[in-house]
Design brief:
two-stranded antiparallel sheet; 54% helix; 9 strands; alpha/beta; 11 helices
Length: 315
């Protein structure tokens, strides 16, 4: 390709990027000014279309609900539809997060333990260089991250995320999260960022990890009562570097009304365990707590993934 053709190709790619970015910004601004009831109806409509058309995800959802929660066909369909609706709402709520964080627009019940409040204060003051925060794709996970980011500021809050391959979408998501204090890092990069913060080469960090998805090279421990492959990254970081950890969720009671629960992950009784045993025990504790949250409102968790597929080969 000659220089002129290369320049034309580069200019075309830049124009495509700018046009796509403009379209995403236009949609974002439009959604942010709509009344909550309109957003609710919009989310319900989109979720109904996805439920009808995405047969593969619908089948996985129904299979998971029947086998894990032992629901009847009728109950599985009802919970499955609500789960699709909840997942669409999360996207809308993340775009409109400024409303949730402004007191005049939100109604949030807080349940933050005394121990968690002390740890949050130490994180905010910089007394602790690195704190882990654990949650799951349940309720409004964006909100629990944004709320923690607001209360630990100026401590930087980073989130391990699998970013979309589309650069325009990935950049847009990063920009939206940055507006409310969350800094997205690709999962491959977050460990390096965490270790640099732990060593003191970076300012204090709060690192948020969502720990409820399939991990092919993980540990096989129970989740919602059935063994599945779970990431061991949080357990390794916590145990190897003696890091404190928060664990919590933000659950939607209705659009515009929420419940946040934050506690400290219990880490006692690990002193006599080998490292591999400690990793498994910490992961089991994480899964047990996250499972208890999900059972309280199963329609607010993502059931459309093959969470319990065979993979890591452990008994």
């Amino acid at each position: 390709m000659d220089n002129e053709s290369l320049m034309l190709s580069t200019s075309f790619e830049k124009a495509k990027y700018s046009l796509a970015a403009f379209a995403l910004n236009f949609v974002t601004v439009s959604l942010r000014i709509l009344p909550l009831k309109v957003l609710d109806h919009f989310s319900y409509g989109i979720s109904a279309v996805l439920w009808s058309t995405n047969k593969r995800r619908r089948a996985i959802t129904l299979k998971n609900l029947r086998s894990i929660l032992a629901l009847s066909d009728e109950s599985s369909i009802r919970v499955g539809k609500r789960s699709f609706y909840s997942n669409i709402l999360v996207i809308i709520e993340s775009i409109c997060m400024h409303r949730l964080l402004r007191r005049s627009y939100k109604s949030t019940r807080m349940d933050v333990s005394d121990e968690a409040q002390r740890l949050i204060h130490k994180c905010q003051s910089g007394e602790i260089p690195l704190t882990i925060a654990i949650s799951s794709h349940y309720g409004v996970w964006e909100y629990v991250g944004a709320w923690l980011a607001s209360v630990v500021s100026p401590t930087k809050t980073i989130v391990a995320s699998k970013l979309p391959k589309n650069r325009v979408v990935a950049d847009h998501l990063k920009n939206i999260r940055t507006e409310y204090g969350l800094h997205l890092f690709d999962k491959k990069e977050v460990t390096r960022e965490v270790l640099n913060a732990h060593k003191g080469s970076l300012p204090p960090h709060l690192c948020m990890l969502l720990c409820d998805q399939h991990e092919g090279n993980g540990l096989k421990v129970p989740f919602l009562g059935k063994k599945c492959c779970t990431t061991n990254v949080p357990a390794r970081l916590i145990h190897k570097y003696k890091l404190p950890a928060l664990i919590g969720i933000a659950r939607r009671e209705k659009l515009g009304s929420y419940y946040i629960s934050i506690d400290v992950l219990p880490l006692s009784g690990l002193e006599l365990l080998y490292d591999s045993e400690a990793y498994k025990e910490i992961t089991l504790r994480i899964n047990t707590i996250l499972s208890s949250y999900i059972r309280e409102a199963p329609s607010q968790w993502i059931w459309m993934h093959r969470r319990w597929r065979e993979c890591c080969g452990e008994d």
